C-alpha cells in the first residue's frame, strides 16, 4: 500500500550492488557475527551478510548451520545464555549492544519477523483483527479509533489474500495453518517494515499451502519494495522466492550468489552436495548421496575449512587453514581454497535411472498385503458429542512381495493411519486386512503364534528419529532386543555388529546411547531394529522428513540398498513427491481418507489425472518457475564463472 | 558407496558420559544424609553414655564437662539421646518413603500403561485417598487405636501413595505415546517387558522425586506425631519426642531441644537437596537429544 510505488521489476539486477564487503548504504549489514553459549561453545562463527533495500535474500542451511541464530541476533531475540558479538547495522545504526527500548522501537516498524509454527505464533485468545492492528498507533503514539483499526485490519487482510471478512472476528484456532500464516504475515507487515525476516515460514505447512504462502511472500516483497530475508533449509524454496542466496554451513558462510547462478553452477562443494542431495521430481537418479556424514559443530572444525571433514576434494590446506569468503565473478562469493580448480567436478551430476514400469502381478500367491474397503474411525473424545473422525474411508491397497509402494498425501489424508493399522497400532473399524496370508484386521484377537508371524511379516520405521529409540538404552541393547525376538534367545555380540554393518554403522556404536548419535544415525538404528526381524514388508512412515537434506539422501540410499539386498517389500509413506519418485515403483495418492489415484510412480506423477494430484505436483517448489530439478541438469549456457 | 555411507562419528563431546560430579552443596547434603543414615544403625553404639540413664541430681545441666551438650530435666545425656534418637526419627520415614515410592510406581505404571478400567479404578481410588489429610488421619487413628509408631508408619505410607502415583501415571502416559514404545510393541515385546525395561528407566527421575518428597513429608509428619506424644513410647529417645519433652528447659539448657530440632531441619533440607540433584542427573541421562 504505502510502498506500492516502489515496485521492483526484478531481483536479478540487485546482485551486483549488494555483495558482502562492498560499501554503499545497505539496509542491513552484518559483519563478523559470532554467537556463543555461556560455556563457550560457538554456534555462529563469523557471518557477514548485507541486505539492500528492496532485495530478497535467502539464507539456506541445514540444522546447526546457525541460520536462525543469525537472524535472531539481528532482531534481538537470542535465547537466554547466548551472546552475540561482531557488528549488526541497520541503516548504519549499530544494533548489537543497543538499548532494549531502541530495539523495541525498531521491531515491527523497521524490521519485522514471521516464524515457522503458525499454530503457536498467534495469541490464542485474541481475534485476528486485534492481532493485526495490535502495533498500530497514530502520529502521536495513541491507540487508533475502533473504526480505523477495523478498516486497517480489513485492507491488510486483503493484502495477504484473505477476502473473507469473517476472519477479522475469528480466533486463530478457528483457522487453518495456511490462513494463520497469512494473518501472521499481515500482522508482521502492519507497520510497513522495510525488512521482513521469515524463518522457515512454510515448513510447517502442507505442500499445497506451502506454495501459496511462498508466492504471497514473494508478491508482497516485490509489490512493497520491501527487503525480505528468507530462512530455509530447502534450496528449491530459496531459488523460487529469492533473488540472492546465501549458503550457510556450520556457522559460517560457504557461498553467496544470485539464485540462478547458484542453482546452475555451484562454486562450493557443499552447495553442489546439497543440490545433488535434493531428489529431483521429474526423474529417478542412480546416486542420491550428495554429502557423506552430518553437519559438525562449529567448534570441532575451528581453524580449518568447516566442510573439510565431508569434502571429497579436501586437501591438507583445507584441514589446516580456514578459507576466507572471496569474490568469484560478478556478485558471487565463495569460501573455498579450491574454487578455481573444481569447476568441472562440481558440474558433474548423477545419471538417471531408466524407470521400469513394474509389471502388475495379479498373481494371488505373491500378494503380501491386501486391504479391502478399510475403514478407521477415531471416536470423539469422552464427553464431547459427535466429533468422530473418519481417518480412512474405504481404502483398497495391495502390495506384492518385494515391491516398493508409496503412499502420498498431506496431513490429515489418513496415510499414517493406514501404515499404523497394518502393524496393529490402530484398529480398523471396518473392512479387512490380510497380511502374509493371515487376517490381521483385529490384531488383539489373534492367538500368540499368529501375532508373532505378523511381526515377521511387517515392521515399521517412524518419522521422528529423536523419540523412536529408548534414550536410556544403548544401541546394542535396542538392536539385541529385536534380534532376540527373532532368534528366540539372547543375541550374540557379533550378530548385533552384523546388523549395525547392514545399516552402515560402525560396530563401536553398540555401546553408545541415542543422545550421542545424529538424527540420521538414529534413523539407521531404527531401520536396523525393524529389519532385525527379517520382515517381508517394511513400512516407512515419513522416515526422512525430520532429517537434513544431505542426510535424507543417505537414508534413502540405505533403504534402496537394503531393499535390494534383502528383497523385502517397502511401503513408503510421505508427503514429498520427489522422495517418493526416487524410491517407489507404484504409488497411491491419498486425500481425506480415500485413495484418489494409484498406479506406477512415473505414470501418476508424469500424467496426473486427479485434480488433487495435479495440485500436489504443481505445488512443489520450483515446479512451475524452473525445471523441478532447479537446474541441476548440466546446462552449459551459463558457463563457468571463474 | 559403502565408504560414503558410513558417516564420520560426529564430534559431540558434551554428550560424553562423565562420572557423577556433584556441586559442593549436593556433596555436603550427601555427606550429611549418609551420616544421619549411619546414625540410625550405629547411633546407640556411638553414644558416650547410655541414652536412658537418668541422674536426677544432675538434671538440666548446661553443656560442658562430662555432658558435651548438657542434660535434660531427668539428667539424661543430650548428646547420647540425640545420637540414639536418629533410629526412630529416620527409620520410619525411610520405610514410608520406600513403600510409597514402590507402590506408587507400580500402580502408576499399571494405570498409565494398561489404561481402560484398570486406570479408572486405580485413579479414582487414588483420588479418594488423596482427599484425606495424612497427618490428621494419623493423629486420629493413633490417638483412638493406640499403636503409636507402627500404626503411624502404616497410615502415612498408605496416605502418601496417591500424590506419587498421579505424577508417575502422567509420566507413563507421556512415554507411552512415544515411537520407541510403539516400536517395542511392534517387534512383539510383552506389556510387562515394555513397562519394566522401557518405561521404568525413563520415569526414574519422577520415581526419585516421589521417594525423596515422601521421605521429607514423612520425616516431618512422624516427628510431629512424636512431638504430640502419639508416636514412639514415652521415654524413647526420638528427635520429635525430645523437642516436645525438652521445650520446658529452653532457658536452662537450650541444647536439649535445639540439638534434635536442628537435626530434623538439616536432615529434611539435605534430603531434599540431594533428591533434587539426583533427579536432575537422572533426567539428564534420559534426555533424547
Automatic annotation (TrEMBL), chain A:
<dbReference type="InterPro" id="IPR050388">
    <property type="entry name" value="ABC_Ni/Peptide_Import"/>
</dbReference>
<dbReference type="InterPro" id="IPR017871">
    <property type="entry name" value="ABC_transporter-like_CS"/>
</dbReference>
<dbReference type="InterPro" id="IPR003593">
    <property type="entry name" value="AAA+_ATPase"/>
</dbReference>
<feature type="compositionally biased region" description="Low complexity">
    <location>
        <begin position="621"/>
        <end position="633"/>
    </location>
</feature>
<feature type="domain" description="ABC transporter">
    <location>
        <begin position="28"/>
        <end position="275"/>
    </location>
</feature>
<keyword id="KW-0813">Transport</keyword>
<keyword id="KW-0067">ATP-binding</keyword>
<dbReference type="InterPro" id="IPR027417">
    <property type="entry name" value="P-loop_NTPase"/>
</dbReference>
<comment type="similarity">
    <text>Belongs to the ABC transporter superfamily.</text>
</comment>
<dbReference type="GO" id="GO:0005886">
    <property type="term" value="C:plasma membrane"/>
</dbReference>
<dbReference type="GO" id="GO:0005524">
    <property type="term" value="F:ATP binding"/>
</dbReference>
<dbReference type="Pfam" id="PF00005">
    <property type="entry name" value="ABC_tran"/>
</dbReference>
<feature type="region of interest" description="Disordered">
    <location>
        <begin position="620"/>
        <end position="642"/>
    </location>
</feature>
<dbReference type="Pfam" id="PF08352">
    <property type="entry name" value="oligo_HPY"/>
</dbReference>
<keyword id="KW-0472">Membrane</keyword>
<keyword id="KW-0547">Nucleotide-binding</keyword>
<feature type="domain" description="ABC transporter">
    <location>
        <begin position="369"/>
        <end position="617"/>
    </location>
</feature>
<feature type="compositionally biased region" description="Polar residues">
    <location>
        <begin position="1"/>
        <end position="21"/>
    </location>
</feature>
<dbReference type="InterPro" id="IPR013563">
    <property type="entry name" value="Oligopep_ABC_C"/>
</dbReference>
<keyword id="KW-1003">Cell membrane</keyword>
<dbReference type="InterPro" id="IPR003439">
    <property type="entry name" value="ABC_transporter-like_ATP-bd"/>
</dbReference>
<protein>
    <submittedName>
        <fullName>ABC transporter ATP-binding protein</fullName>
    </submittedName>
</protein>
Automatic annotation (TrEMBL), chain B:
<dbReference type="InterPro" id="IPR035906">
    <property type="entry name" value="MetI-like_sf"/>
</dbReference>
<keyword id="KW-1003">Cell membrane</keyword>
<feature type="transmembrane region" description="Helical">
    <location>
        <begin position="90"/>
        <end position="115"/>
    </location>
</feature>
<dbReference type="GO" id="GO:0005886">
    <property type="term" value="C:plasma membrane"/>
</dbReference>
<keyword id="KW-0472">Membrane</keyword>
<dbReference type="GO" id="GO:0055085">
    <property type="term" value="P:transmembrane transport"/>
</dbReference>
<dbReference type="Pfam" id="PF00528">
    <property type="entry name" value="BPD_transp_1"/>
</dbReference>
<feature type="transmembrane region" description="Helical">
    <location>
        <begin position="255"/>
        <end position="275"/>
    </location>
</feature>
<feature type="transmembrane region" description="Helical">
    <location>
        <begin position="25"/>
        <end position="47"/>
    </location>
</feature>
<keyword id="KW-1133">Transmembrane helix</keyword>
<feature type="domain" description="ABC transmembrane type-1">
    <location>
        <begin position="90"/>
        <end position="275"/>
    </location>
</feature>
<feature type="transmembrane region" description="Helical">
    <location>
        <begin position="211"/>
        <end position="235"/>
    </location>
</feature>
<keyword id="KW-0812">Transmembrane</keyword>
<feature type="transmembrane region" description="Helical">
    <location>
        <begin position="135"/>
        <end position="159"/>
    </location>
</feature>
<protein>
    <submittedName>
        <fullName>ABC transporter permease</fullName>
    </submittedName>
</protein>
<keyword id="KW-0813">Transport</keyword>
<dbReference type="InterPro" id="IPR000515">
    <property type="entry name" value="MetI-like"/>
</dbReference>
<dbReference type="InterPro" id="IPR050366">
    <property type="entry name" value="BP-dependent_transpt_permease"/>
</dbReference>
<comment type="similarity">
    <text>Belongs to the binding-protein-dependent transport system permease family.</text>
</comment>
